[in-house]
Amino acid sequence: MATITQSELTNQAELGELSQPVIRVEDVHKYYDLGENRVHALRGASVEIAGGEFVAIMGASGSGKSTFMNLLGCLDKPSSGRYLLEGTDVSQLDKKALAAIRNRKLGFVFQGFNLLARTTALENVELPTLYARLPKEERQQRAKEALELVGLGERMEHFPSQLSGGQQQRVAIARALVNRPSILLADEPTGNLDSRTSVEIMQIFQTLNESGLTIVLVTHEPDIARFAKRTIVFRDGKIRRDEPVKDRPRAAEMLKTMPTVEED
Amino acid sequence: MDLLSILRIAIRALSRNKMRSALTMLGIIIGVGAVIAMVGVGQGASKQVQDQISAMGSNMLFVSSGTVNRGGLRLGWGQTKTLVYDDMKAIVQQAPAVKEAAPGSQTTSQVVFGADNWFTNIQGTEPQYFDIRSWPLQEGVSFTESDVNSAADVAVIGATVQQNLFGAEDPVGQTVRISNLPFKVVGVLTAKGQSAAMGQDQDDVIFVPITTLQKKLTGEPWLRYIVVSAVSKDATYAAQEEITSILRDRHRIRSGQDDDFMVRNLADVAQLADQSSRVMTMLLASIAGVSLIVGGIGIMNIMLVSVTERTREIGVRMAIGATEEDVQHQFLIEAVVLSLMGGAAGIFFGIGSSLIISKLLGWAVLVSPLAIVAAVIFSAGVGVFFGFYPARKAARLDPIEALRFE
To answer: E-assigned strands of B83-158?
Structure first.
């Protein structure tokens, strides 16, 4: 299982403890014009996320949570309002600058893992460092470290097709961490996994968060949201609830009580 | 992203669909191969023409008697009676660019040997004629200067005449009758084939001393033509000018009056023939080029399919920090790798088919390095041109849509 001892992340922990929030969203609206209809996906959302937080975003489909996540991930721009990432207003940046932010400041984990087929785990993890134009030795060094961080040091040369779902998701997490981002964004990371593997992934998230990484997670499963420190609930394009999680379970403890499915 | 990494990614992406990549490449292979083979055939033909022209005597000039304008009636070339033997002597003596010259006159006649007869061209000249035209004998000897002086009844026959009158028999020493006069055959010329410029059979001819022709066959004291060889290939134009001025002077042509003779430079003929074979090469190459374009369209087609198939991959790459340029370069390089690999294979295919064409059809085929370099550059260009649109399409994808793509 994953053993997380990442010293680099403490840097981000220190960064996170600064008074400035890592994410600051001010009255953000997003609408799409579909022919004559204007669809309002977000109708004024404001939120601040400090460094070192672990936030779960919840809501039914169509509630605006995915749109919000895309904005946080700099994949989309708000129609109005401001989004400050580490103090920089990213709503004004061009596509190239946004790509650089996605590359260096954000790490993405998706529901469907989205690994490149017929490409080894190591090469998959290396990919973001290629776009960061790091020298070759450093690329490989970082990719190896990231894979060891998620407990896959033994399977670096495996192809995605040779890995279980949980292992694939851990490769994806390693890929998200390889450029040492300040924020990890996860969109339904456990959606394709069974319940024990889901908890295993949440254990990794909790450990990463404890070492200082800011994590924002989108999920519609309340059981998964419980592992975060704070939940934000969207409905009809607005934030309806924003509260800290009470009785937060420890994923590592919970795993001990769960029946062990045969590990591959 | 550095070029090496992009190249590695491109080659991996292509090797994922080996069959598809190979088939796509086939279009370029055939295109490039066809261009190289066709240019090879064209240039081979061009060289053949050049060789034939230099076989005619590469430094040769041809002076023929001119037209007559008598009271408005204009007759064709070769009708004036002003070109004479002394003109030839003057050309050799006075023109420094001229090496040798030989007089010529001609008639046509029925030639009889035994029971066979043949209608052919009778040319009268001097022994140096064969030298000027670089036309060696395959058998026997040429008539000599003393034969010319004595107007001897001797003849040198062309290969076509030999075949038609003698067949397998040895003609040297035999006697043929030209206009009922007996001539002794002293030599047989090597076959020269069709003339490159006019396409007529140059071997269908009998040569006799100029004096014999003038006195015994035609009764014309003037010359129809003079063949001249210049001291070098570059001197042919100088020789042309010198001959013109000497003859105008000798024929007392005042300035402003037309020449009563014509000087033709074979370098001009060579240039003309060269030009026409160049046009043929271009034509063949452009037809082959069309297949290269068709191959390019194949690449575009497959790249478009590939972009659609890999929409999710493109979305992921963008999400983890690939810029539009990164994505565009990736697909562009993939198309270029595809076409360059096709181009490389096409070179071998082109050289191979050139060799087969030259073996099978007996054509001269000349594979030029220039055509190979051009083919490589052109195939890379095809990759860029036809890869651009699919790559642009990939780069323009919205990452959110791409990630959602099933």
So the answer is: 98-113, 116-125, 137-140, 154-157
φ, ψ dihedrals at A233, nearest 5°:
-110, 130
The residue of chain A nearest to residue B330, with distances taken between CA atoms, is A131
Rounded to two decimals, the ipTM of the complex is 0.88
Look at B322 and A99 and tell me if their CB atoms are within 8 Å: yes
Residue A102 sits at the chain B interface (C-beta within 8 Å): yes
State which residue of chain A sits closest to B401, comparing Cα positions: A75
Q: What is the CA radius of gyration of chain A?
A: 18
On whether any CB of chain A is under 8 Å from the CB of B271, the answer is no
B320, B327, B404: which to substitute to probe chain A, counting the most A Cβ within 10 Å?
B320
Q: DSSP 3-state assignment of A251?
A: helix
* First-residue to last-residue Cα distance in chain B: 27
Name the residue ranges covered by the structural domains of chain B: 3-52+272-404, 81-259
Q: Beta A183-187 vs A106-109: how paired, if at all?
A: parallel
The confidence score (pLDDT) of residue A1 equals 44
Count residue pairs from A and B with Cβ separation < 8 A: 62
With 80 as the cut, is the pLDDT of residue B219 above it?
yes
Residue identified by tokens 């010319």 is B148
pLDDT in tens, B157-166: 999 999 989 8
Per-residue pLDDT reduced to its tens digit, A101-140: 999 999 999 988 899 888 899 999 999 999 998 898 999 9
Tokens of B131: 């030298």
* Percentage of chain B exceeding pLDDT 70: 94
Closest CA to A54 of A253, A219, A252: A219
What residues contact A44, with CB distance under 8 A and at least 6 apart? A27, A28, A29, A81, A237, A238
Distance of CA B183 to the CA centre of its chain: 39
Rounded CA separation B7/B19 (Å)? 19
Sequence-distant (≥ 6) Cβ neighbours of residue A246 within 8 angstroms: none
B315: which chain A residues are within 8 Å (Cβ-Cβ)? 114
**Distance between CA B135 and CA B112 in Å, rounded?**
25
The amino acid at residue A239 is: I
Per-residue model confidence as pLDDT tens digits over A161-192: 999 999 999 999 999 999 999 999 999 999 88
A90 φ, ψ to 5°?
-85, -10
> Residues of A with CB below 8 A from B12's CB?
118-119
List, in order of start, the domains of chain A with CATH numbers: 8-12+51-80+94-257 (3.40.50.300)
Give me the residue from B12, B316, B320 closest to A103, CB to CB.
B320
- Output the six-digit token pair for B4: 């090496």
Q: Do A131 and B5 touch (CB under 8 A)?
A: no
**CA B346 – CA B54 distance, rounded (Å):** 34
Residue A210, pLDDT > 60, answer: yes
Classify residue A220 as exposed, middle or buried by CB count within 10 Å of its CB (0-12, 13-18, 19+).
Answer: middle
Residue B141 has a pLDDT of 92
Question: Which of A 225-264 lie inside 8 A of B, CB atoms?
Answer: none
